[in-house]
Amino acid sequence: MLKAGVLGAGHLGKIHLRLLKESTRFELVGFHDPDAIVGEKVSKEFDVPYFENMGELIKAVEVVDIVTPTLSHFECAEKAIRAGRHVFIEKPITHTLEEAETLIALAREFGVKGQVGHVERFNPAFNAVKDALDSPMFIETHRLAEFNPRGTDVPVVLDLMIHDIDIILSAVRSEVVSIEASGVSVISNSPDIANARIAFANGCVANLTASRISLKNMRKSRFFQRDAYISVDFLERKVEVVRMKDAPENPGDFDMVLQNAEGVRKQIYFENPEIHANNAILDELEALADAIESKKPVPVPLEDGTQALKVALRIIEAFGRKPGEPVILS
C-alpha cells in the first residue's frame, strides 16, 4: 500500500479523505489544512490524523493528494515534488500556465508521477464509449449547474467547462488553431455563463456551453463522426450510439434505411454499450497507484491538465474580443 496524505479539508477534500481511507491501495497517513479549527473538526469526524505542518505530512507519505483552492495548487505541488513525492492535483492543475509548465519540468527532474483530477475521464458512461470515438468532426457539449456559491471565485470556464475541454482534447487529439468565445457575469464577479467554439487543425469543431446559474443540472456531450453519432450523459451515466452502414440489397421489414440525393443507401442501427458502475473519484486515485506501482504512464498526466488549462485560459482571453474575432493559438 502507498502511504498517502491529503492537502485540503474542504468539501472535495473530505470526499478524498473518505475514499482514501476505504481504498485498499493506499494507507491514509493524515491530512493538512491551514485552518486548524477545521483540521481538528475533520480529524475527529473521519478519525484521521491532522498535521498542522504541511511539510511534516509531505515527509511522512509517498503520495500527496492536493485538494486545496486552485491558487495554492502550485505551492503545494512544488513542495511535494521537490520532496520526491508523487502528486494528485485537482483540476484545474494550477492558476497560471507558467506554473503548470514548471510542475511538468519539476516532475521530470525529480522522477515522480503527477496526475490531474479530470474526473470525467473516469465517468462510466464515457468509459463505455471512449474507444468508439474515432476522429469526431463536430462536438457539442452542455454543462449546466444550479447556482452554488462554492467555486464562484473563478470563471465558469475554470469551474465547469474545463471538464468538457479535457474530454474533447482527449477525443480529438489534434492541435487547436482558433477559439471564439463569449461570457456573461450574472451574479458573480466573473462569468457565470460561457460559450466557446474551438476549431482544430484536422477540421473538427467543438461548441461548448457552460452555466452555473441554471434551473436544472445537465452534463451532456454529443460527438458526430463519419457514420456515427455518440451521445454521453455524464450526469445520468447513459449513452446513445447510433451508427450507419451500407444498406443490404433486400432490407428487412423493420430495418431503418436512408437514401441520400446521390442514391447511396445507409442502414441505421443502434448499439447499447455496457456501462459498469463505479466511483470515478476512487478510480482516478487508484489509477495513480497503478501507474506508480507498474511504472507506467498515468491516465491524465500533468501535460494533459496543462493543455486543458491552456485552452480554458484562451477561452477567457477571447471574452474581451469582438464577435467573430478568434484567439489564434500559436
TrEMBL record:
<dbReference type="InterPro" id="IPR051450">
    <property type="entry name" value="Gfo/Idh/MocA_Oxidoreductases"/>
</dbReference>
<protein>
    <submittedName>
        <fullName>Predicted dehydrogenase</fullName>
    </submittedName>
</protein>
<dbReference type="InterPro" id="IPR055170">
    <property type="entry name" value="GFO_IDH_MocA-like_dom"/>
</dbReference>
<dbReference type="GO" id="GO:0000166">
    <property type="term" value="F:nucleotide binding"/>
</dbReference>
<feature type="domain" description="GFO/IDH/MocA-like oxidoreductase">
    <location>
        <begin position="155"/>
        <end position="216"/>
    </location>
</feature>
<dbReference type="Pfam" id="PF22725">
    <property type="entry name" value="GFO_IDH_MocA_C3"/>
</dbReference>
<dbReference type="InterPro" id="IPR000683">
    <property type="entry name" value="Gfo/Idh/MocA-like_OxRdtase_N"/>
</dbReference>
<dbReference type="InterPro" id="IPR036291">
    <property type="entry name" value="NAD(P)-bd_dom_sf"/>
</dbReference>
<feature type="domain" description="Gfo/Idh/MocA-like oxidoreductase N-terminal">
    <location>
        <begin position="3"/>
        <end position="118"/>
    </location>
</feature>
<dbReference type="Pfam" id="PF01408">
    <property type="entry name" value="GFO_IDH_MocA"/>
</dbReference>
